[in-house]
Design goal:
The complex is a heterodimer. Chain A is α/β, with parallel strands linked by helices. Helix content of chain A is about 40%, strand content about 10%. Chain B contains 20 helices and 9 strands. Classes of the chains: A alpha/beta, B alpha/beta. The interface between A and B is large, with 41 and 41 residues.
């Protein structure tokens, strides 16, 4: 994995140009989420007609997964806060809503209607939220309908899996990163994947701008900007 | 680097047809290089090669059909390409399921044989009554799976069910309207669909309409916008059976209430049946016009209560049965213990357990259920309390919780109490005096005696031994 063999999306070694990482099921590090991924593949293939609900904390990758399904099916991910009370999806469509806890009171009723019309209107639902349905702060009639869905927690990655994800992400960017650097990052940085990835991106950026190789001292400078 | 070069030259000699094992190991190392380690480990590493000696045939066995599907969609063409680099002649690559007698479940040509599975695919409950569904039936908006047959009855709903069956037998005559109320997710909708389906079955010519109150509101709004109240009125007055779900959605919608009031009067006068559900007792609905509420008193108001543990277990078993799955008591009890308040979430939990078992190709045991339920319940680090033990044991033996600390000494009560004491000692850090205190202020020697008795009995009585096992698992969660 050296820079010459960088991913196809890498355009040119220029600062400020980031390879776009289009979310897909394939560039999601599975960890213990293998079952969930196959379930989402079923959603994409429309072979799952039951509503599916994913939950997990910030940085667990929920949005990535929803986006992946949306990309594959030509749909969009609606953030819960953007759903309006008069939301009516077309018949036989796949509805993808992220952060259901952010639905307004009216939007909750709109989603409630989608659940009720699901069978006659052949709607399919893929939802995500910050907590298990049992603990969702929303109206009870909606909450229990979500609770009837197929429920998956997006399981956080172990440190080893995060390391693997980071190495892959680095390779995609054409970065050459030593294992011990990743180890250091996992020990010293914030350990949710988006933050880790962001550090890696910053590291790449700095390395290009300062024309310095990706080394531990450079990583330290990024993690502790006050020291510089 | 071409794949063949990566092999031992002896194996890839020009005239020898390389064997499948060497191809597969080369293929594995190639994929390992190309794919992120996680992807490789999750999907590829678990594939098992099976050879039948034939050089142009290669079978790969996946641990379950989900991995099989995933590999087929994402990696099979890649493997096929590699095989073209590797072999001078085309080879057929079969993908199958491990543990399946038929390894050729799916081939590259897309032929599909039925894989042998431990668990069947989830199926909708057999439409018990509607065989040839037609337009007329579709217009009713009834759900064919919601019938009296598929409705589990218990203390929580037996009255409501009896009334519903009465109404289904004599629509428009016995109780009009039938007003069903109860909390969210207790089966009100199921019950009224069952009436609709039953009426339809007896009289397919009956004009039946199930409508959610929200949709009724939309209908009124539409009629208003399109100035089409005549059509609206004609439609609702043409019905033989009107089922309105969740009437609490009419609150503060005056025009809707007015239209419903007229439709209601017209239908009632013509002896057409009206059935209404609500999440509260009619008189407690704030924002509903008095004259409408008083109409509801004309008929019969019945309540559906939350199901008790045994009923939840029965519901789970029934739903599992509909998916042709035999659900063990211990697993059903475990699920029922975690989801107490409504039937909907009970079903969600069951679905999750079944999906989990199917994915991992494992039988539905208590351990599988526990793993699967983690997704449903979320991380709860629950402390096991004496109250929980008392409640669970009492439920299990169908006695009152109060009997746990009563002075009654009949065997039917004393034995469960001893069981609960023993479990309390096993599963909590409470002292024996504390346990005795919690069981009606009994002496610690009573607890000690109970523990000895149970210990002694369990070695002789396999039935009791099983009870203890189930209870322990259930309480530990």
């Amino acid at each position: 994995m050296n820079a010459a063999h960088s991913g196809p999306t890498r355009q040119q070694v220029l600062p400020h140009i980031r390879p776009p990482q289009i979310p897909s099921l394939d560039n999601f590090v599975p960890g213990s989420n293998g079952e969930l991924l196959t379930q989402l593949a079923r959603c994409i293939a429309a072979s799952e007609t039951r509503p599916v609900y994913l939950w997990g904390g910030k940085g667990s990758g929920r949005t990535h997964l929803l986006q992946a399904v949306a990309n594959q099916t030509g749909t969009v991910v609606l953030p819960g806060s953007a759903v309006s009370g008069d939301y009516v999806p077309p018949d036989a469509s796949l509805i993808i809503i992220d952060d259901v806890e952010a639905l307004s009171a009216e939007a909750q009723i709109a989603l409630f209607r989608c659940f009720n019309d699901q069978r006659p209107r052949q709607l399919r639902l893929l939802l995500s939220g910050s907590s298990a349905p049992l603990h969702l702060p929303c109206r009870e009639d909606l909450r229990t309908r979500i609770g009837q869905a197929l429920i998956y927690e997006v399981k956080p990655l172990s440190d080893g899996e995060k390391a693997s994800a980071l190495l892959y992400h680095a390779a995609q960017r054409g970065m050459k990163v030593d294992d011990h650097l990743i180890e250091y990052l996992l020990r010293h940085g914030r350990r949710d994947l988006p933050s880790l990835m962001a550090v890696l991106d910053a590291l790449d950026q700095q390395s290009l701008e300062q024309k310095r190789p990706v080394t531990l001292p450079l990583l330290r400078e990024i993690l502790q900007p006050n020291l510089v | 680097m071409p794949l063949r070069d990566s092999l031992d030259p002896a194996l890839s000699g020009a005239d020898a047809i390389p064997n499948v094992t060497s191809f597969w190991s080369a293929c594995l190392s190639q994929l390992e290089r190309e794919l992120p380690a996680q992807q490789f480990n999750t999907w590829i590493k678990g594939l098992r090669l099976e050879t039948n000696g034939s050089p142009d045939q290669l079978s790969l066995l996946a641990p379950n059909r989900f991995v099989l599907q995933w590999v087929r969609e994402r990696y099979l063409s890649q493997i096929q390409e590699l095989s073209q680099q590797f072999y001078p002649v085309p080879v057929t690559i079969h993908l199958g399921l491990a543990g399946s007698s038929d390894a050729e479940a799916e081939t590259l040509n897309g032929e599909v044989a039925t894989p042998v599975e431990k668990l069947p695919e989830p199926v909708a409950m057999a439409p018990a009554i509607i065989s040839g569904r037609d337009d007329a039936y579709d217009k009713t908006r009834l759900n064919p799976t919601f019938t009296f047959d598929t409705l589990v009855t218990g203390r929580a709903n037996d009255l409501a069910r009896a009334a519903a069956q009465q109404v289904a037998l004599n629509p428009g005559i016995s109780y009009n309207p039938l007003f069903v109320y109860g909390g969210v997710g207790l089966g009100k909708t199921h019950l009224i669909h069952a009436i609709g389906n039953s009426v339809y079955q007896a009289n397919p010519g009956a004009v039946i309409r199930y409508i959610h109150a929200e949709d009724f509101v939309s209908d009124v709004v539409r009629a208003y916008q399109q100035k089409a109240f005549d059509v609206f009125k004609r439609y609702y007055r043409s019905l033989d059976l009107l089922l309105v779900d969740d009437i609490q959605f009419f609150v503060k919608k005056d025009r809707t209430q007015e239209e419903f009031f007229y439709a209601f009067n017209a239908l009632a006068e013509a002896k057409k049946q009206i059935i209404i559900t609500c999440d509260t007792y009619p008189k407690d609905i704030d924002g509903l016009k008095e004259r409408l509420i008083s109409r509801f008193d004309w008929g019969l108001t019945v309540q559906i209560e939350p199901p008790e543990t045994e009923m939840r277990v029965a519901i789970l078993k029934k739903k599992a049965e509909a998916s042709r799955i035999d659900l063990g008591d211990d697993v059903a009890f475990l699920i029922a213990k975690h989801l107490r308040s409504n039937v909907r979430e009970l079903e969600g939990a069951l679905n999750r357990v079944l999906a989990f078992a199917r994915f991992h190709n494992r039988p539905i045991t208590i351990d599988v259920a526990k793993d699967a339920l983690k997704d449903i319940i979320g991380a709860t680090n629950r402390q096991i309390s004496l109250e929980l033990i008392q409640k669970t044991v009492a439920d299990y033996y169908k006695i009152k919780v109060a009997d746990m600390y009563s002075q009654k000494r009949t065997r039917a009560i004393a034995r469960p109490r001893q069981v609960a004491m023993w479990i309390s000692r096993e599963l909590t850090a409470h002292s024996l005096p504390e346990i005795g205190e919690a069981f009606g202020g009994r002496d610690h020697t009573t607890v000690l005696h109970a523990c000895r008795t149970i210990l002694d009995l369990r070695s002789k009585d396999s039935h009791l031994n099983n009870d203890l096992h189930v209870l322990e698992q259930t309480i530990k969660g």
